[in-house]
Amino acid sequence: MHMLSKIKLFCALLVWGLSFGAAHAFETNAKAAYIYDLSTGTVLLSKNADTPLPPASMSKLMTLYIAFEFIRAGQLSLEEKLPVSAHAESYGGSTMFLDTTDRVSVADLLRGIIVLSGNDACAVIAEALSPDGTEAGFAKLMTRRGQQLGMTHSTFQNSNGWPHPMHRMSMRDLGLLATRLIEDFPEYYDMFSQREFKFDGRAPANTRNRNPLLGLDIGADGLKTGHTQEAGYGLVGSAQQGERRIVFVLSGLSSTNQRADEAEAIVNWAFRQFSTRSFGKSGDVIARATVWDGSSADVGLALSQDLTTLVPVLGDGEVKFDVEYLNPIPAPISKGDNLGHLVVTIPELEDTRIPLIAAESVPRGGFFRRVLTAGQTLLSRVNAQPESGS
After folding, report:
1. Structure confidence by residue, pLDDT tens digits, 190-220
2. CATH H-level, domain 32-272: superfamily
3. For the stretch 25-36, what's the b/e string if a residue is b when 16 or more beta carbons lie within 10 angstroms of its beta carbon?
4. Active site residue 193
């Protein structure tokens, strides 16, 4: 029987000299919010982040992700011109003012979605890539692909975020999607920082990107705004300063001005209140775990990646490290096997979990080694039992 064991690395804390400030959570006016540091994998803020909510035009990011996948697979090209159906033309709200006489290049449609938030452009892309040629069929594809990407709180009913009671996304899912766009398709990411797109002179009043952070010289370079009466004003944003990049998602704000103010404040808070610290390198052995039925009594638990995390700049807090693994670990063990996690706890932030891997291989032991291991394990469990009271 294997039990979950935890090792608190207080000795390591003393060696690394960890004594940092306790960060105060950002007080956001958004009904839901999520802030994630890509450089360290640290969640800086989570407010109703797993609640499925109407995402409005922020869900257009999923249409863009799938379009980029088709382009990379060679099934769609930027130069290809797509027809506009009556269904696509029928959309109101933010549009490119397309009509059924148009054939529009994929490159223009993508910019029309990103910069102009074109509902019609989304529908054109959706119908071209749909398994059954309809936008509804593409929405089903969006839901399936989202699940595959780990977006477990997202269901899509259309390609553009048009109000529908079953069209929902969580802020964490939107943050995950933004991260995947940045990391998976860097060749297209500069589209998200384009501030103006004049398509064929059709909509002089709709030529500028609605992202309020572009041009503020704070490192902001994406991704997508959203607004409906039900959803309020929202933004999926990203900014990079130095080696750090953050992604943040806001929803449920009351106005464009509140959205702009809130987004700028979040970027400033995320970069000013935290600094990056390195506590270990990939391959460093940070603990040893008991092995069952192995040629060796224990195995080293090593970091699977560099241990770099954020710490608050000011205050008086404490960073804690816990090792979690199933004890004892059965042999045979191959070097590099996943054996547990290092849990990094920083006050006011979500815990960060770093996979731990076997530092060396441990084959199964002989008969006497098995007997010795069984005896040691039994003795350790007996000693761990609390004394009975009188």
Report:
1. 999 999 999 988 877 789 999 999 999 999 9
2. DD-peptidase/beta-lactamase superfamily (3.40.710.10)
3. ebebebbbbbbb
4. no
